[in-house]
Sequence to fold (581 residues):
Amino acid sequence: MTAASPRPRRKQPADLRSQRWFAPDDLRSFGHRSRLRQMGYSAEEAEGRPVIAILNSWSDLSQCHTHFPQRVAEVKRGVWQAGGFPVEIPVLALSEMFMKPTTMLYRNLLALEVEEVLRCHPVDGAVLMGGCDKTVPGLLMGAITADLPAIFMPAGPMLAGRYRDQRLGSGTDVWKFWAQRQAGCLEDCVFRQLEEGIARSPGTCMTMGTASTMAAVTEALGMMLPGASTIPAVHSAHSRMAAACGRRAVDMVWEDLRPSTILSPRSFDNALVADLALCGSTNAIVHLLALAGRAGVPLSLDRFDELSRQVPVLANLRPAGEFLMEDFHDAGGLPALLERIRHLLAVECPTVNGRTLGENIAGAESIDDRVILPLDRPLSSAGGTCVLRGSLAPDGCVIKPTAAEPRLVKHTGRAFVFDGYADLKKRLDDPALGITADDILVLRYAGPLGAPGMPEWGMLPIPKRLLEQGVRDMVRISDARMSGTSYGTCVLHVAPEAAAGGPLALVRDGDRIALDVEGRRIDLLVDEAELARRRAEWRPPPPRAERGYTRLFLDETTQADQGCDFRFLHRGPPGTEPEIH
Fold:
């Protein structure tokens, strides 16, 4: 919707969904109104106003969201200012660091909870509060399906870390210093000082990891206020943004501005373009596939690869580049980057503030060309993330070549295979294996069904003996994911996964594997007759759970190339409105 477009009829108080609970002159509504009085609300506060659900994914173990109690108060302030009625509703907190085997196992559970929370309560719209990696797609997936007016309030990145005179980026620098420690080049006391200085404030990782990528993708989709995705968590601007989200959520209800009116194939292309220009996390691919499935938008790995050949990497941010999220924000943030690649965007797409993406980024200026690179000197001319196919991954896999050593993006080597992370940890450093820097490490049974949940095991560690020799990268292949803060020549999300009977299950030690990123190929160099013999001998592993949520996950989750969503929650009309009895 442009500023000049005719405005739809604004809702009236009688049109509000919440009034089905509160307005009728009957016994049930008497009960609803009386319980509001029980909580201390007067008729003037609660009746005839848009009820805004503030879905708060905070907990005492959600490290990225420790500032959310204060932000809830600020969102509420904005809702009250705009004439709405705010209600905080806690939802599942997905703590990336503490939940095992992985928060990815529970992303779909959060999505299911959000959908049902919005459906069953007397609410007219929602502010979605999240930031930690799987929280963002989980909240969005549920809100898309519920299709009530919704706006996303991001947690924001934490402050830059510090060790002596070095600025630290969480995740990325951890892997670097851990490799040095394993190689015997770093004292224990130094490592403890790094531990104390690498995460110094509330907020998400301050590198272009999954959290920062998903925040930017959400802004590019149109589900977030312009410029909000990069505001550091502890800046006063973040508090002001929280209040602005509350105010805007009320207006969105009156305007009936829903996810279904914002999300389209073109808006998803905008999200992909933003992801690629940022050299964003490979995890964004899985999440965007799931979001598109919820929105009924056709999206495949092929579209990612098509755009990856066209979009330059302009964000000079770790792990692929040099700078951190504070620098990106100060340089102009996502609007400045998007304005620089305006010619690649569908600028007519609507956004949650009622303006188009093009209007939101118009005139946005890059303050620092070292951070947001000019078009004539990109970090990479294309290929922030590439999709590979071949005999090892017939349904596709992904790699971030900008995070790899150039010598390895076309490589053929001997496979060493590990069946799960426990096997990897047990045997990787065994000198008797004879692993060399030219070999290829293969981890399998680490995908959606095999792990279960597709943990971030895809940045396989390098054998200690090789680290001591100065080796810092090898080709590594898995059906797992890896942290968006990671780097290295890591081929990820191999589909079908080994536990589903994909070719990865047939690889044996000593097999030759050929990687060709430019040719978009990943091939197992074993003749078909031998593979057929191995396939006949292969038996699927036993289920990783017999009951509960994990069993539901195993029974219903799609493969990585389809977003790892529940089959029964893919595109369909929102559930029927609850009967009020």
